[in-house]
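User: Earlier you gave me the apo prediction for this protein. Now I'd like the version with nicotinamide-adenine-dinucleotide bound, so I can compare the two side by side. Same sequence as before, with the ligand SMILES added.
Assistant: Got it. Here's the input I'm using:
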Amino acid sequence: MKITIVGTGYVGLVTGACLADTGNEVWCVDKNSEKIDNLNKGILPIYEPGLDIIVSRNTKDNRLFFTNDLAKAIANSEICFLTVDTPSNDTGAADLTNVVAVANALGEMLQTPILLVTKSTVPVGTTLKVKKIVQTGLQNRSLDPTSVSVASNPEFLKEGTAIQDFRYPDRVVVGTERSQDAQKLHELYSPFMRKQDCFLVMDIASSELCKYASNAMLATRISFMNEMSQLCEKVGADIAHIRTAMGWDPRIGTHFLYAGLGYGGSCLPKDVLALTHLGKEMETPLYLVEAADQTNGNQRERFLNRIVAHFGGKNNVKGKTVALWGISFKPETDDIRQAPAIFLIEKLLGLKAMVKAFDPVAIQNARKLFEDRVTFCNNNYACLEGADCLIIVTEWNEFRSPNFTKMKQLLTNPVIFDGRNLYSPEKMRELGFDYFSIGR
Ligand SMILES: NC(=O)c1ccc[n+]([C@@H]2O[C@H](COP(=O)([O-])OP(=O)(O)OC[C@H]3O[C@@H](n4cnc5c(N)ncnc54)[C@H](O)[C@@H]3O)[C@@H](O)[C@H]2O)c1
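And here is the structure of the complex with nicotinamide-adenine-dinucleotide:
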C-alpha cells in the first residue's frame, strides 16, 4: 500500500518507519525543511530507542521517503495519516491550526480516492471537520467529494518504548463511517496483531474521545498518588507501602501509581486541559480531571518550596549552585515539553541560583531553550562539583545505583532532593546525606 504520513515528529516518524517495515511504501511529509533535509541525510530529529535502525533499513530499501512536498507524497496514496502536533491554545483547548492547514492543502491537491486518518489527538468532531474541509476543496475543483472518506485512529504509543508499542499494540482503535474503511485499516495493521487481534472498531466520536479519556485516567492516577504522598508526609506513612498494597489489588493494578514530580510531556498536560475545555464547552464540567491538573501543578510547587525552605527562603537561593539530574519528562526520550525539570530550572534561575544540569539524551533540546543560562555537564558527576544540593528529576536508569561516596565528595553539601524516590531513605541517612524524597 502507498501511504502518506503528514507530520514527521514522534508519532509520524515511528508510524511511518513501522509501516514501511512491514512492506508498505511510506512517504513522510513535514513542513519543517531542516527536519526533512536531515532525515534524508540519515539524521533523526528525535531520540527514540531502536528507531534509527528501522529508518535506515527502510530508506535503504526504498520503502520510506521524506519530503516537504505533500502533493508528490499524496499522489496515488491509499491512506493518509495526519500526525501533526495539536498543542494547547491560550484557553486550554486543542489548537487545530496544523490539522486544518493540512486539510486545506489536501482539499486543494487531492486527485485520487483516499482514506484520511486523524492519528493526532484531536477533540471530538475534528475528523468530520477535516472531511468537510477536504470535500469542499474537491467540490470547488468540480471533483467528486465522496472520493474522500475519513477515520479516526488515535495513537497510544509511549515515547521511549514507541517501537515496541507500535509493533505490539494493546489495542488499535479506529472510528469509521464505512465498514470498508475499517477493513482497509485492519489489513494495514494486521501484521502487528498476529498474536492477538486487538482491533477495535467504533464510531468516530468514541474513537476521538477514548484517547482523551485514557490520558485523563492516567493523569488522575498519578495525581491521586501525589495527593496521597502529601498526606503520607503529614501522617508519617510511606507512599511506597501504600502503592504496593493498593497495586496488588487486581482491580487497581500496579501501573501508573508512582508518586513523584507529577506528569509532564507533550501529551498528558495538554490532553487534560483539552478534555476539561471540551467538558466546559459541552456544559459537562469534568471536576475530577480538573483536579488532576491542579494537583499536578501543586506537586511541583511543593517540591520547589521544599528546596527553597532548605536554603532558608527565597532570598537565600540567590548565588547557590544547584545540580540537576534528568531534564527529559521521562527516561528514554529527549522530549522536554512540559517537563518538570523545565519548571524547576526556570524557577531556580528566577531566584538567581546557578544551575548545572545533566541528561543522557535531552541536553541538545534543553540547550536550545536555556542557551547559556544553564551549565550543561558531560556526565552526572560533573554536575555535582561545587553544588549546594542535587535535585533528581528524571528516573534514568543510570541514576539508580550511583557511586554515593563520589557524590558526597563532589557536592559542597551532601543534600539530595529526589523527585523520583530512587533511593532508600534509611541508606541515605546512614551514608550521611540530607535526603528528601516524596511521601516517605
Ligand atoms: N508524542 C507522543 O508520545 C504522542 C503519543 C500519542 C499521541 N500523540 C499525539 O500525536 C500528535 C503528534 O504528536 P508528536 O509528539 O508526534 O508531535 P511533534 O511535534 O513531534 O511532531 C509534529 C510534526 O508535525 C509537523 N507539522 C505541523 N504542521 C504541519 C503541516 N501543516 N504540514 C506538515 N507538517 C506539519 C511539525 O513540523 C512536526 O514535525 C499530537 O496530536 C499528539 O498529541 C503524541
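For your comparison, keep in mind: The two ends are 54 Å apart (CA to CA).
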